[in-house]
Each structure stands twice: as C-alpha cells, then as structure tokens.
Backbone:
C-alpha cells in the first residue's frame, strides 16, 4: 500500500481547543521533545523544505499548528515537550492544551511520537506513550536522525528503544531526513489510519 502527498499547506495555528478546525477531516498528530527533528520529519514527508518551521529556540512553539494535506487530512504539529528551561506556567498551559486535544479530538486517527535515536527514551517520552495507551490512541514511534549513527549503533539503539517502550515491530520506524530512510513506511502507516483502502493505491 502506498500513500502519496501531492499537496500540503499551512492551515492555521490554534491556542485553545475552541479554535479546532470545523472540518471533520482525519488528523495525524506529531509529538516529540524539543529538538528531536520533528519539523525535518514533517517537511520530508510532504516533500517541502520549510513547511514546518524549525526553531533555534527549543520550546518556542506554544501553539498547535494545523497543516492541510491533499485537501482532506490534517497534520497536527504539537508543541515540543520536556524542555527544562520552559516556565512552569507555560508547561501548565501546554499540558492542558495538548491533553485536552488528545482527549477530545474525535478526528484524531493516530499520533507519531518522535524520539532522537541517539538517546534512550526519556521519562517524558515514556509518560506520553503511557498516556496515549491509556486512552487507546494509535501510536507510531519514529526514531529520527538515524544517519548520525553507524549501522550497528543504530540497531542497538532501536533494540533498546523497543525494550524500554515495550513496542512491537509494527509500532516503530527508524528515520533519517537526510537519506529518507523510513519515509515510505511512515506514509503507509498514515494512509492506513486516514484513508479508505481503495483510495490508497491511486
């Protein structure tokens, strides 16, 4: 099964749940700690260099950004979590907004949780995965920056992440924005969550 992105546009930011898009399009959310390569992953998937903006200041994004894909799907860029210098007040606002979104968005079909392959999953990564599992959300864990490691180190980190997060083969993908490793697998997963089977092969 293949899924191709032919069109991707920035739709709008939201700062509170009342601003969620009215269209009942399926949504795929992207979540990860600051500086794990979330923007690079999204840009690679849509085939654009700067659709999702990267920030030189970790934790700067304090809103949820919506992108319209193929005029019928939303990619949802969530604020980075786990940044130590973020104020307690901001963390509380982010937590309330993100948790509310996860709990209340009926159109959320899956979450791509992004982790830097060079580091073992942090406690905040584990907490998010447990939270999503409790609410029975479909999650694909993507280990980014695979080109930064040798093949043996990459396989070792992949194995360790699977053990720590208690994942099976189908719930984890190794990705590199530089080499495009894992891109097709991620797109296929997105297609399986958002489109009818007969549309996927068009």
Residues:
């Amino acid at each position: 099964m293949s899924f191709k992105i032919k069109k991707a546009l920035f739709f709008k930011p939201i700062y509170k749940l009342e601003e969620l898009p009215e269209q009942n399009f399926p949504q795929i959310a992207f979540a990860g700690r600051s500086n794990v390569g979330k923007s690079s992953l999204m840009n690679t998937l849509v085939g654009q260099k700067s659709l999702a903006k990267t920030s030189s200041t970790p934790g700067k994004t304090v809103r949820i950004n919506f992108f319209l894909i193929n005029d019928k799907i939303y990619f949802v860029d969530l604020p980075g979590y786990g940044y130590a210098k973020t104020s307690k007040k901001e963390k509380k606002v982010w937590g309330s907004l993100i948790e509310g979104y996860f709990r209340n968005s009926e159109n959320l079909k899956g979450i791509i949780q992004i982790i830097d392959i060079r580091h073992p999953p942090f406690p905040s990564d584990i907490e998010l995965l447990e939270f999503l599992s409790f609410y029975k959300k479909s999650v694909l864990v993507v280990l980014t920056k695979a080109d930064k490691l040798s093949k043996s180190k990459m396989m070792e980190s992949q194995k360790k992440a699977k053990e720590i997060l208690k994942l099976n083969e189908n719930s984890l993908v190794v990705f590199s924005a530089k080499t495009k490793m894992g891109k097709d697998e991620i797109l296929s997963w997105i297609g399986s969550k958002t489109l009818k089977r007969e549309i996927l092969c068009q």
